[in-house]
Amino acid sequence: MDVDPSRPRTPPSGHPTDTSPWVPDASVRGAVGLALHRLIAERLAADPGAVLAAARRNLATMRRANDDGSADGWLDAWEVLLDGPLDRLTAVMADPRQAARDLRQSSPFAGVLSPKERWAALRRVRRRGGAPRGA
């Protein structure tokens, strides 16, 4: 088989290097966020010190980047949750309702999951058509 060097090679759909133009709609993005935060909640239960430390560092970075104050309400809400009981934090992280979905849009948990874990969660949500289990 001859390979045409002028034709770009594309990875299979869902592969970590997939650059296809698939853009999830709002319901799928919400489902992905919920699935990711449920995984993060599991990690939080296993290693609360490390996960909370990462989230607090990220939150501080997010505050510095929020020059106009437009995200203050969301960042304040995360701070209250991070400083409160773990069961309350994990309940919000796994809550499928709109208020929790909105809060997850400014999540301080970047870097808690590996890229491989994030892609696996995305593939699971895509296979199920956008709805994580328990939603």
Task: Write structural notes for this entry.
This protein is mainly α and 135 residues long. It has one domain (26-127). Helix content is 59%, strand content 0%. The chain contains 6 helices and no strands. It has helices at residues 26-46, 48-65, 72-83, 86-93, 98-104, 115-127. Helix 1 (26-46) crosses helix 2 (48-65) and helix 1 crosses helix 6. The termini are far apart. 17% of the residues are buried.
Attribute tags:
mainly alpha, globular, disordered N terminus
Shape: globular
Mean pLDDT: 81
Helical fraction equals 55-70%
Taken as a percent bin, the fraction of beta residues is: under 5%
Please outline the major beta sheet. Answer: none
Low-confidence stretches are 1-5, 8-18, 20-26
Span of the ends, CA to CA: 46 Å
What integer value in Å does the Rg equal? 17 Å
**Count of helical segments?**
6
- Strand and helix order: HHHHHH
Q: Tell me the domain tally.
A: 1
User: Could you tell me the number of beta strands?
Assistant: 0
Structural class: mainly alpha
